[in-house]
Amino acid sequence: MSARHSFTVKDVCAALGGVSRSRVHGWVGLPPFSGIPSRERCARRFSRADLLTFAVLRTLDDQLGARGAQLAHASAAIHAYLSAPRATGAGDWLFVPLVDGAARPVPDQAITEAGWVIDLARERECIDRYLGVLPPQRELPLVGGVGRASP
Q1: CA atoms within 13 A on the CB side of 90
Q2: How many CB atoms sit inside 10 A of residue 10's CB?
Q3: Distance between CA 28 and CA 42 in Å, rounded?
Q4: Which of 24, 74, 125, 136 has a CA that sits 20 to 30 A from residue 60's CA?
Q5: DSSP class of residue 119?
Q6: Coil, strand, or helix at residue 66?
Q7: In the chain, what is the greatest distance between 2 CA atoms, to the nearest angstrom?
């Protein structure tokens, strides 16, 4: 059984490539985090699912141009989706419709409504790399001439 880890705002900033503390505090003001009571002079603690939620919120904000009201509309559903147990794989894509802000897997059939599609594999890789779970094999240099006989 693995130990349960928790993370502070400083950890969230580091895991997401140096996002500012004020930006994380803005996300903490969104549901469901805004409904969780905090204590003065105590660091707020986050789970791995929370880290993933923040990674998705960053992608929505940075790459897809979501505004604050849109993030607030969808953040609780995104967190619920990412917190629920499920098998993950290379085709782990999240669809967030603009109409209701629900979060669900990308359907097998064509999407017929406006919304955002997010590659969760990329978000999970970012968090796993920070946690040291994912070896950065793609960053290793290619060694030429291995196994070749010298002339």
Answers
A1: 0
A2: 11
A3: 15
A4: 136
A5: E
A6: coil
A7: 71
Structure tokens at 75: 């953040």
Instruction: Say which DSSP state 144 is in.
Output: T
For residue 19, give both structure tokens: 């996002």
Compute φ and ψ for 150, nearest 5 degrees: -75, 140
Residue 126 identity (one-letter amino acid): C
- Helix residue ranges per DSSP H, 16-119: 21-28, 48-62, 68-83
3 state SS of 6: coil
pLDDT, tens only, 18-65: 899 999 999 999 999 988 877 777 778 899 999 999 999 999 999 998
Strands in the chain per DSSP E: 93-97, 104-105, 115-119
Query: Both tokens of residue 14?
Result: 């580091």
* Residue 30, both tokens: 């969104």
pTM: 0.78
Q: φ and ψ at 99, to 5 degrees? A: -65, -55
Length of the chain: 151
Cβ neighbour number for residue 1 with a 10 Å cutoff: 3
